[in-house]
């Protein structure tokens, strides 16, 4: 089973959703046959190229009324075992980090990409690090087993730029308008950081339908059923 997860590094619900989906995978008997890959999405493509305080940035964009919402999402994250420190977080453009995730998948595979995704999310939400900074990205990549010299060379060039822009355009064409969005087998989409039990239900449903489909036919049936909706 192929699962593509559209998400951004600067998205708290993407971090929470990742944790919940991974809990669901541990309870899914067919987890070994599930390939999970992360696709880029930018909630704020106009975010600054130089990191600034997240609080100051959102105050300018939305007003100070956002701060209680930051506190609410931090409380929610704690219930899922995630330690958010949004008062230390740095708002910055995430395009370069998405390029690094693209490199991780294409040269190291989806397993390393998933580890890097976690490292980037933790850097942003828990450790107040600049996820656009070259040294930081090289360090995080090295921490998941990527060759640091290759990463440095990649990030200082323009490899992957066109490909990531293409994937961002694909997300728009697919109709992704909010993240996280989980696309199962290219047919069914689940939007949002659903509970682990919901993700487990979807995994079981998609697996069951896949085994029932005869060659040359489609598993797609109703537009929406049991939380899984066709794209």
The number of distinct helices, counting runs of at least 4 residues, comes to 9
The count of β-strands is 8
Counting helices, strands and paired strands, the structural category is alpha+beta
User: Hey, roughly how much beta strand do the residues contain?
Assistant: 5-15%
Quote the distance from N terminus to C terminus.
16 Å
* Radius of gyration computed on alpha carbons: 18 Å
Strand order of the largest sheet: 2-1-5-6-8-7
Runs in which pLDDT lies below 50 for 5 or more consecutive residues are 213-231
Describe the protein.
By secondary structure, this protein is α+β, with helices and mostly antiparallel strands. Helix content is 52%, strand content 13%. It contains 9 helices and 8 strands. It has helices at 12-27, 54-62, 66-79, 95-108, 110-125, 134-143, 148-156, 161-174, 196-212, and strands at residues 2-7, 35-40, 52-53, 90-91, 181-184, 188-191, 224-225, 228-230. Strands 2-1-5-6-8-7 form a 6-stranded mixed beta sheet, with helices on both faces. Helix 1 packs parallel to helix 3, helix 1 (12-27) packs across helix 9 and helix 6 runs antiparallel to helix 7. The two termini are 16 Å apart.
């Amino acid at each position: 089973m192929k699962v593509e997860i559209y998400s951004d590094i600067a998205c708290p619900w993407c971090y929470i959703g990742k944790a919940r989906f991974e809990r669901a995978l541990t309870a899914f008997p067919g987890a070994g046959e599930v390939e999970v890959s992360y696709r880029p999405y930018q909630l704020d493509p106009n975010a600054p190229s130089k990191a600034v305080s997240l609080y100051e940035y959102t105050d300018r964009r939305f007003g100070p009324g956002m701060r209680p919402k930051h506190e609410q999402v931090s409380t929610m994250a704690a219930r899922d075992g995630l330690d958010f420190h949004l008062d230390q977080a740095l708002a910055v453009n995430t395009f370069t980090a998405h390029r690094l995730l693209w490199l991780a998948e294409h040269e190291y595979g989806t397993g390393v990409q998933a580890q890097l995704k976690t490292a980037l999310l933790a850097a942003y939400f828990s450790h107040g690090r600049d996820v656009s900074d070259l040294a930081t990205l090289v360090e995080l990549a090295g921490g998941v087993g990527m060759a640091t010299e290759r990463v440095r060379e990649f990030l200082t060039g323009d490899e992957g730029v066109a490909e990531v822009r293409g994937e961002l355009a694909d997300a728009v064409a697919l109709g992704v308008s909010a993240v996280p969005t989980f696309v199962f087998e290219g047919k069914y989409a689940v939007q949002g950081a659903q509970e682990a039990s919901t993700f487990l239900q979807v995994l079981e449903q998609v697996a069951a339908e896949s085994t029932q489909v005869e060659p040359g036919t489609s598993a797609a049936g109703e537009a929406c059923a049991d939380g899984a909706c066709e794209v």
